[in-house]
Write a structure and sequence with these properties.
The protein has about 80 residues and is an all-alpha fold. Helices cover about 65% and strands about 0% of the residues. It contains 4 helices and no strands. Helix 1 (about 5-25) packs across helix 2 and helix 2 (about 35-50) crosses helix 3. The longest helix has 22 residues, at about 5-25.
């Protein structure tokens, strides 16, 4: 029988969610779908690298994405130099 340990998964999701919420509060912006997708993806990457507390994840997210403008992707510019 498979034991998925749902409480562990819920705990992990809560840690990631709290970190993303903290980023939004820190930057005083309203969540958007695109920004949330990017922040959650970054938070999951950081989590898989061993950063396990909401405080640590939030600090790293705030450092990596220092403003809402840092979440914007300019495809023309980003591919122009490749």
């Amino acid at each position: 029988m498979v034991d998925f340990n749902l409480s562990l998964r819920t705990k992990d999701v809560n840690v990631l969610s709290e970190a993303v919420r903290t980023w939004y509060q820190h930057n005083r912006v309203t969540p958007t779908e695109r920004a949330t997708q990017l922040l959650c993806s970054a938070a999951m990457d950081l989590y898989s690298q061993g950063h396990r507390t909401p405080e640590e994840l939030a600090t790293l997210l705030i450092t990596r994405f220092d403003s809402p403008y840092s979440l914007k992707i300019n495809a023309t510019t980003s591919t122009a130099h490749h």
